[in-house]
Amino acid sequence: MQMAHLLSPVLWFLAFVLFLLIVVAPSAAVVEDNAFVVSLHELKFGDDEFGFSSSTSAPQRPRTQKGATILELRHHSTLSKHKKHQNLLKMDEARATSIQAQIKNYNKFEKKKEFSSEAAQLPLSSGVKLQTLNYVTTITIGSTNTTVIVDTGSDLTWVQCTPCTACYTQQDPLFNPSSSPTYLSVLCNSTTCTTSLQAATGISGSCSQDRNNCFYALGYGDGSYTRGILAQETIALGDVQVPNFIFGCGRSNRGLFGGTSGLMGLGRTQLSLVSQTTDQFGGVFSYCLPTKLYNSSGSLVFGNGTSTFKNVTPVSYTRMIADPTLAPFYFLNITGASVGGIPINASGFANGKILIDSGTVITRLPPSIYKSLKAEFMAQFSAYPSAAGFSILDTCFNLSGYDEVRVPTLKLEFEGDVDVSVDVSGILYFVKKDGSQVCLALASLSYEDQVGIIGNYQQKNQRVVYDTVGSRLGFAKEPCSYS
Ligand SMILES: *[C@@H]1O[C@H](CO)[C@@H](O)[C@H](O)[C@H]1NC(C)=O
Ligand SMILES: *[C@@H]1O[C@H](CO)[C@@H](O)[C@H](O)[C@H]1NC(C)=O
Ligand SMILES: *[C@@H]1O[C@H](CO)[C@@H](O)[C@H](O)[C@H]1NC(C)=O
Ligand SMILES: *[C@@H]1O[C@H](CO)[C@@H](O)[C@H](O)[C@H]1NC(C)=O
Ligand SMILES: *[C@@H]1O[C@H](CO)[C@@H](O)[C@H](O)[C@H]1NC(C)=O
Ligand SMILES: *[C@@H]1O[C@H](CO)[C@@H](O)[C@H](O)[C@H]1NC(C)=O
Ligand SMILES: *[C@@H]1O[C@H](CO)[C@@H](O)[C@H](O)[C@H]1NC(C)=O
């Protein structure tokens, strides 16, 4: 009796401590020097059904602060849960393949130029596979609020317009040019219709019969396209007005654009949104991609928003490699990588040209780099049983028997001693929710001479700064999920 009396408060206290540990304890992964020690549960970042709902702070409202304009950036997925992964990775592969084809085309065009100008008339696929372009934002065109896909791998911004010959279903109302006093079509004898459009889409505009309209056409690798009239209009990014912005008023559009109104092109040529707003924003934009797939938002910032960032490491800049022939893409020089603090040796680092893209999901590495990186990862992850590969991912594990997993750190190194530590949410890809098939979230290119791609999966929880005027790209660690 006496014992029971003494014990019960002790038990209550222990239960309370246990409660604190389980419910109140912070969810942050333990970061050792060369590994993240993280619970299996916490690792399932992409999945809100099972993953951690972390922050409860308000989503980003569009606003201007200290000279920078901040827009909300949301993850956008129209895929049903069924076969979600299979489709996503299949489409991701289509985009990566299409980017390679586009680079090849530009190269061919460069070589052929002196012999024939015909190559210039080839409509190039932009490499955009829209279902994989998972990040959307809202801007105002004329006075219509419009949700568009954000793409750093293409240049022309376009939205669906009335009168429509063929429009897919979108959530926002269609943009109606005739009700906007600030709308103007671009003349077909202008250099905008010829030279600029050629650089942006690979094909120059054609004239309407009355020569008052410039027709554009932009085809995508999967048969999706947009066709319409090149026009100018006042747009607003948050509360910053951009008059005379050149965009595509799409009257015939087909494809899987997931209910959005169109696309925002943030590539490198003069028609891209970042080039056209150089006066307002100095040719600088940045984004921070959230880790969660649903109900979570990051930010897209135009202008030097350094003071508005929530970065926890300083922004360090690496040089963008200039390459005028490869129109919209941003290229960097990757000089090394390390797994769990162990540097990787690979011949592929000697010519380290790699492109960074907001629309490709999984990072693609030249075979020489992928092979050594995989070998080192396997060596450090050998405690866990392997599992069958999945789609483009060939390094998979069965983690279902583990409560806690020790994930080696992954660092990418760029010219100028810029080290980018990939967030723990960007290292492994959960194919099966129960953890029985979890893969290293990187893939190999087929050939050594293809160009690698830094995908968005590895850019999560990073502030990525595109300084197009200074021709440099900055990285900083930043927690990105705001809701
Ligand atoms: C458009 O979006 C802005 C900013 O979110 C909002 O203040 C405004 O009310 C919206 N306008 C319309 C017509 O929905
Ligand atoms: C372009 O065409 C318009 C009429 O359609 C004409 O007024 C203008 O002078 C032309 N501009 C050039 C540069 O040829
Ligand atoms: C997102 O939030 C909405 C509204 O709060 C909710 O109805 C929906 O189920 C959530 N979606 C997911 C995938 O959590
Ligand atoms: C932004 O401004 C800061 C402080 O003036 C400067 O150090 C930084 O280089 C600028 N960044 C860009 C991308 O212009
Ligand atoms: C890479 O090369 C360096 C020097 O050549 C060597 O010391 C190191 O062990 C190599 N690392 C791997 C992972 O092979
Ligand atoms: C994965 O591991 C668990 C526990 O270790 C085992 O029960 C299960 O059969 C394994 N699953 C597969 C698909 O190998
Ligand atoms: C990348 O950087 C390395 C080391 O600074 C340099 O040797 C190499 O020439 C650079 N590659 C390119 C394509 O600029």
UniProtKB/TrEMBL annotation:
Q: Does the keyword Signal apply?
A: yes
Signal sequence: where? 1-29
Top-level taxon of the source organism:
Eukaryota
Q: Does the keyword Signal apply?
A: yes
Task: For this entry, list what GO says about its biological process.
Answer: proteolysis
- Pfam families found in the cross-reference section: TAXi_C (PF14541), TAXi_N (PF14543)
Q: Where is the Peptidase A1 domain?
A: 135-476
Q: Where are the transmembrane segments?
A: none
Q: Which UniProt keywords apply?
A: Signal
Give the matching SUPFAM superfamilies.
Acid proteases
Catalytic center residues: 151, 357
Gene Ontology molecular function terms on file? aspartic-type endopeptidase activity
- Entry's family note: Belongs to the peptidase A1 family.
Protein name as catalogued: Peptidase A1 domain-containing protein
Q: Which organism is it from?
A: Rhynchospora breviuscula
